[in-house]
Amino acid sequence: MFDKSLIDKAYSERPELKKRVWDAISKTPQYTDLFIDIAEYTTELKTRRNTVAAVNSRVKDEGTPVSKKRRLEDSNGDDIIGLNGNSQAWRNGEIDITIQDVSFTIPQRKKLTLELTTVEADGGGLQARNPVSGELEFGIAWKHVEHVICLPVPEKVQRQYTFCVFPQYGDGISTLPEDIEATDPMVWTISDIAPKTDTIKYKGVISGPLELGETYRGNFIRFLNEKLKAFGKGVIEPEEKQFASCIVQSHRKGEKAFHVKAFRGSKDGFLFFLHTGIIFAFKKPLAFFAFETIDSISYTSVLQRTFNLNITTSTSTTPSPSSTNSTSPPSTNTNISKDFEFSMLDQADFAGIDSYIKRHGLQDSSMAEQRRAKKVNVNGVVKGEDRDKDGEGELEKAAKEVEIEMEDREDEEEEDYDPGSEGQSEGEGTSDEEEDEGEGGIEGGEEEGESEL
């Protein structure tokens, strides 16, 4: 059952339209999820409009020109452009690398110039500049970067890659501190081709692809890893040893696919299973489930052709920076549990996904605290000899440690295996398979066109 207040809130200013929406829901209940999504989007637009109006009114009262950009204020009073959960520390560094004509999709859908600044004690980061006006549109400080993920774009004839940069509290699942608004990730897509010689500048000097990397993807990964290594982080990519789809790509049959089609409500997207977590992309809102945030994973609606994946997360609330400086008693951390359901996953990938989940112990909620305990010093600075030669960060090392522990546990269980004690459970497994086959008549009624993106 959905929250009826979503519809009422979205159309509170248009009662006649609200009545038409309710009438449509009652006549066509199969489109309820669509109407809910429209209502949520409408509410989001209204919130943005009211925020901009309030800021413009304040600026007008102060007698300064009103900017057309969305400007917000954080708890410290700093002006924020684009990403409204981070301070402007990303403005403090010196421009190191410039890449022109980068196609952004989040938080704005337009071509901008991406600038990577030097890592400074008080800031530095990556920022997007409007090539026409020369003004900065948005950015994230290096110290506020939580995850950077490079994903192959599915179902494209020309090979493309999408980079997703998640700031703190911007993974789509984290519980936000008090007085901190949701932050958007930075997402851009590039073709896997050699860059033009005049599109990349290193410290203001034009450099060719042979000097800085073979393709756009290689360039970006190199640049980002150089900046992130000071924080013990790096660019994360899919790996075949973690998960690869069994479904053959029609346009590139010789290449492995790392994605699985899925729906989150009425929104379609792709799941990628990485060595540090699971990401749902590419449409907003993106969601990244780092291992330490996952409480457990289960399956529902397991049919002959499809199944649903349910991820339960547990994140803790933390006091905001402003509240920690106040004279009131400090807020206590509380864990908040959330459930995320992804539907219509292809049954052909069930075995691979199930193996991935069990390998990392994600099906067992009793392992959740151990996974969270592994996130030690993940945001700390790793210097010189403290960092492995292969550039592996603390988060990557923690994920591999959990994986090794799970493999050791499986080896111990195999040593203690008694064939006579599990005969009954094997029989139950056979019965489940027969039941799934018996549901073929019901499953056959599913329209394959619904999963077409």
Structural description of this entry:
With 453 residues, this protein is α+β, with helices and mostly antiparallel strands. The chain has 11 helices and 19 strands. The protein has helices spanning 5-10, 15-27, 32-61, 209-212, 216-228, 321-324, 350-359, 368-373, 394-415, 423-438, 440-443; strands spanning 71-73, 79-81, 95-106, 110-117, 125-129, 136-141, 145-152, 160-167, 186-191, 200-202, 205-206, 235-236, 259-264, 267-273, 277-281, 287-290, 294-300, 306-316, 335-346. Strands 3, 4, 5, 6, 7, 8, 9, 10, 11 and 12 form a 10-stranded mixed beta sheet that branches. It is globular. The two termini are 26 Å apart. Mean pLDDT is 75; it is low at 63-86, 320-328, 376-391 and 419-453.
Largest sheet: 10 strands, mixed
- Silhouette: globular
Give the H and E element order.
HHHEEEEEEEEEEEHHEEEEEEEHEHHHHH
Number of helices: 11
Structural class: alpha+beta
Write the layout of secondary structure elements.
Blueprint: H1 5-10, H2 15-27, H3 32-61, E1 71-73, E2 79-81, E3 95-106, E4 110-117, E5 125-129, E6 136-141, E7 145-152, E8 160-167, E9 186-191, E10 200-202, E11 205-206, H4 209-212, H5 216-228, E12 235-236, E13 259-264, E14 267-273, E15 277-281, E16 287-290, E17 294-300, E18 306-316, H6 321-324, E19 335-346, H7 350-359, H8 368-373, H9 394-415, H10 423-438, H11 440-443
Parallel strand pairs: 7-12
Antiparallel strand pairs: 1-2, 3-4, 3-9, 3-10, 4-5, 5-6, 7-8, 8-9, 10-11, 13-14, 14-15, 15-16, 17-18, 18-19
